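Work Package 3 (structural annotation) set out to generate three-dimensional models for the target panel prioritized at the project kickoff. During this period the team completed the workflow that converts sequence records into discrete structure tokens, so that structures can be stored uniformly alongside our sequence database. As a representative example, we reproduce one entry of 82 residues exactly as it appears in the project archive.
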Amino acid sequence: MAIIINVDVMLARRKMSVTKLAEEVGISLTNLSLLKTGKVKGIRFATLNQICTVLNCQPGDILEYRPDEHPPEPGAGGDDGF
């Protein structure tokens, strides 16, 4: 996936545990762990807002775009519907 989640980096910079972040954001530890490992397909803006508020950071500190080495062919069944 081209979007990299850097929650671990921000947690280390803030010297905060995953458990503490989950409690303060109001999401389950399981969901936060799935987000950290990139095993989710999306995140609600409200959740991203809460994470940024608690970690005192910008969304760009958490989300990073890295182009895929082998992007899918146009029209190859990707999730490009709006």
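The CA atoms of residues 19 and 29 lie 6 Å apart.
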